[in-house]
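cache lookup: miss for this entity combination. No prior model stored, computing from scratch. Input as submitted by user K.M.:
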Amino acid sequence: KAGVTQTPRYLIKTRGQQVTLSCSPISGHRSVSWYQQTPGQGLQFLFEYFSETQRNKGNFPGRFSGRQFSNSRSEMNVSTLELGDSALYLCASSLSGDYLLSGELFFGEGSRLTVL
Amino acid sequence: QKEVEQNSGPLSVPEGAIASLNCTYSDRVSQSFFWYRQYSGKSPELIMSIYSNGDKEDGRFTAQLNKASQYVSLLIRDSQPSDSATYLCAVIGASGAGSYQLTFGKGTKLSVIP
């Protein structure tokens, strides 16, 4: 059974550019969450999608956005990149739609973004 | 802002000993608690979930939850060098307006010395 697939794995952008990251969840998983991981802040929740609807959103500026398609694949976009956006962006999928159980996440390998 | 606090470590234990990892959380109404393990350069993987007060055992791992004290811990018995990793505590709690959020602690780095 294939795991969570994220593309691209590595990318380098310059300030002011925008970036789109892609995530394909485990087959049958309808919940997809996005996290930003940095050495200083740890794992921080960006947003969660379930059945193409954003169910939850973390405390990130509007430059961070996402969407989910009917096949559960998800994309996140960061516009007007800043140096502080350099991080590992992790996508995670969950089988359960019950929020009490949705902490049981399966993570992808991540997309490492460097902003110069 | 809901908080999940962990001692950053590093926590060093000899091989075969019991490693004890602790986590406190600020949201009193939190209901679901998780421990993830993250090896260096890898993504987190779920190792334990616990939803009610008391102990939950799975092999060498035991999760303990005390909602009154807002405290959750992870015990690793017979620690092995392969257990050396960062352990992340995660808690689901309400984030307002009927929404909820999975909040992670910053993790405790465990080093098992052969």
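stored under new cache key. DSSP finds no helices and eleven strands in chain A.
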